[in-house]
């Protein structure tokens, strides 16, 4: 390496150090509220309020009762709220015990970005697709303004968002995984690829809608390694060589997830030019989750394909919290003894300890573009 190259590298190093110093010295954003859009990865009670409540032992690990989450405890959105020193988000569909002063959650388990022509009773796909969640947000925002103006005292206003704070809130998105799940069920891989531009464009339209109403800070999760769900192993016999990777994940499904995430990231980059005042953070949840799955032993977790809750022996599968029959006897899908050692809670969703592990690594900016901790996600880069 010549002297000039050394100088360039040294100058680049100094520049990077200065960037880090500037970033670290920037004040925190002090988000007053979070508005979340998503599926079961971030649902905090929406699908339970709309249909049948999620049963015990869901929620038992942290909340000591079912609490509308597809986990034994907290989901990543809860750790986001904790990091921002805000209360856990009430689901928009909850009619009782709600407080929307610091945001609302429009996510429901089974939600997709694109509308699906099937009911929740067929394959668990929620009727509250992303466009409906945005319609709900629009109603919520308009109704908030009306109620705030009509309120007679501070007590009436105490559980309502402050209308001026919608512009200062953080808008989080964690949705798209179920679009791929539906694709795997209904299409070949080429057909799935053909749907991807429309899926990411519909997500971009949702972001634009909020931007046009004054929202400026966006935190967008990509989709996780869908091929690493233990449910993919059910009823699989005599699979061809190379079907699974070394960690037990379905290779082709993860390949599709990676392709989808690339298109999503490209669309986010384009959004930054289309929405010049927006601070948009792309969050590589896939890399964080696969990082855990590929290193469970060193991180203190059991085999990532082991399921904590439910009864799964040979080809008999009784879902977490359900009653079924095995060998002529009633069997209840109960929890394992140490959920904190499991990545998978129920074969599809992550246990709280795994959610916490992933949250720790995305909230500090390790897996985000730009590499910004969530406390500074209001700054454009």
Automatic annotation (TrEMBL):
Gene3D superfamilies: SGNH hydrolase. Keywords: Glycoprotein, Glycosidase, Hydrolase, Signal. GO terms for molecular function: alpha-L-fucosidase activity; hydrolase activity, acting on ester bonds. Its EC number is 3.2.1.51. CDD domains: SGNH_plant_lipase_like (cd01837). Belongs to the 'GDSL' lipolytic enzyme family. This is GDSL-like lipase/acylhydrolase.
């Amino acid at each position: 390496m010549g002297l000039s190259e050394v100088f360039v590298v040294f100058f680049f190093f100094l520049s990077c150090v200065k960037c880090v110093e500037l970033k670290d010295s920037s004040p925190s954003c002090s988000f007053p509220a979070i508005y979340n859009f998503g599926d079961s990865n971030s649902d905090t009670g929406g699908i339970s309020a709309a249909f049948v409540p999620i049963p015990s032992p869901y929620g038992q690990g942290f909340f000591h009762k079912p609490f509308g989450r597809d986990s034994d405890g907290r989901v990543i959105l809860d750790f986001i709220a904790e990091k921002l020193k805000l209360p856990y988000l009430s689901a928009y569909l909850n009619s009782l015990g709600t407080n929307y002063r610091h945001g609302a959650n429009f996510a429901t388990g089974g939600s997709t970005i694109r509308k699906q022509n099937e009911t929740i009773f067929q394959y668990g796909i929620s009727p509250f697709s992303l466009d409906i969640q945005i319609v709900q947000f629009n109603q919520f925002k308009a109704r908030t303004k009306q109620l705030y103006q009509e309120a007679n005292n501070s007590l009436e206003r105490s559980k309502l968002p402050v209308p001026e704070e919608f512009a200062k809130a953080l808008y989080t998105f964690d949705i798209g995984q179920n679009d791929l799940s539906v694709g795997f069920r209904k299409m070949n891989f080429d057909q799935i690829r053909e749907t991807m531009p429309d899926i990411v464009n519909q997500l971009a339209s949702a972001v634009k809608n909020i931007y046009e109403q004054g929202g400026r800070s966006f935190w967008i999760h990509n989709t996780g390694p869908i091929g690493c769900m233990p449910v993919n192993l059910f009823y699989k016999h005599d699979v061809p060589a190379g079907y699974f990777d070394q960690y037990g994940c379905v290779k082709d499904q993860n390949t599709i997830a990676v392709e989808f995430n690339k298109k999503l990231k490209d669309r986010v980059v384009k959004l930054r030019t289309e929405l010049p005042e927006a601070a948009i953070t792309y969050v590589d949840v896939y890399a964080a989750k696969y990082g855990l799955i590929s290193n469970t032993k060193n991180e203190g977790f059991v085999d990532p394909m082991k399921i904590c809750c439910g009864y799964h022996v040979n080809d008999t599968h009784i879902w977490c919290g359900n009653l079924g029959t095995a060998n002529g006897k009633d069997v209840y899908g109960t929890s394992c003894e140490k959920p904190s050692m499991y990545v998978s809670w129920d074969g599809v969703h992550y246990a709280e300890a795994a959610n916490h592990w992933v949250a720790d690594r995305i909230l500090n900016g390790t897996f985000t573009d730009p590499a910004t901790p969530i406390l500074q996600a209001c700054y454009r880069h």
